[in-house]
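S1.2 Input.
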Amino acid sequence: MPKVDISGGDSVLKEWIKAVASRKPGARNLSYDEAVAAAHAIARGDSTDAQTAAFLMAMRMRGESEEEMTGFIDVFRKYSLPYRSFSYSLNCAGPHDGRSCFPVTIPVSLLLASVGFPQVLHGSESFFPQTGHSLKSLLEGLGIEVVLGVREWEAVFLQLGIGFIWTELMCPPFGRVRPVREQVGLRTLLDTVEQAMNPVHSQFIIVGVRHKTAMERLLKLLPKSGVETAYLIQGIEGTEDLPLHKSSSIRKVTLWGDEATTIDPGTFGFHGAPLEKCGKERQLELLERIVQGEEAPELHNEREHVVFNAGLRLYWFDKVGSYEEGFQLARSLLQRKEAFKLLVKWREHSGIGQSGKLSRKKMSG
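S1.3 Output.
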């Protein structure tokens, strides 16, 4: 293998565009070292926007190899901020195009963290805010300060066992290429890179995917990220949240292999309607009411989605002995307002409660 030069990003990326985009017989996959060179060129901003877009689209049309994806993930990790390792935690990566209905994973994460299972949420701003809202935007709407330095974030996480990491703050190259990704308007290999970053080296991860092809790609990459147990979910809007009105495809990935299964909510006595699409303010209203333990009839569907998903995760990651025990614990935690208590502490510890920056009505304990 000839030595790969990463010093001249412009010429290097042109070379790899020709390699992956050519219709001639010479078109081929990049080696790991070549993918690393291309990733450095993009991450450092050495390539032009047009070259970056051309490369990403060529890779999307041809399909990325495992070596290529591994090279990009390794390089983008090198440009990331140096967070401490919190291996005993569950990493939950939000979809890049946001949520247009009730974000089940937020109250679920609060419930799991309230019983001592640390939760790491991470993601970027939504690329399509007109159709979906990011976890970042929703957490800010709940009064959480998400723009924290590394040491500030670690202090909050150590205290509470829950935290959100903004991808573009964690890894500045994602911010640099965001305009290109917005203009391309399609999923590219960087979406997979973002989901697989695992910023604090969590042993456990749960990821939402829209298609089985994305699931197949991730199941090969996650074990290389230090993940011991991963669940890949074809959930609501491509998220990790399972619906109540139909079965969902699940892939469990461990260091020893993977297994496919289907989860039918009816098996456990859960039935519900599809979650309704709603705007940000309505999502925040539902979140606040449910974590405060309200049991109004109009909240039944969203609340049951929370209980179902929390119960599944409690069992999947060995916090309870059975699914039924997980559902019972989740329901009890909601009734005792444990999610709400933790949310109040999270807002206060993140600093926004003292800064006076909240525009929403201050929540009280």
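S1.4 Remarks. Strands lie at 90-93, 119-123, 162-166, 204-208, 229-233, 248-254, 257-263.
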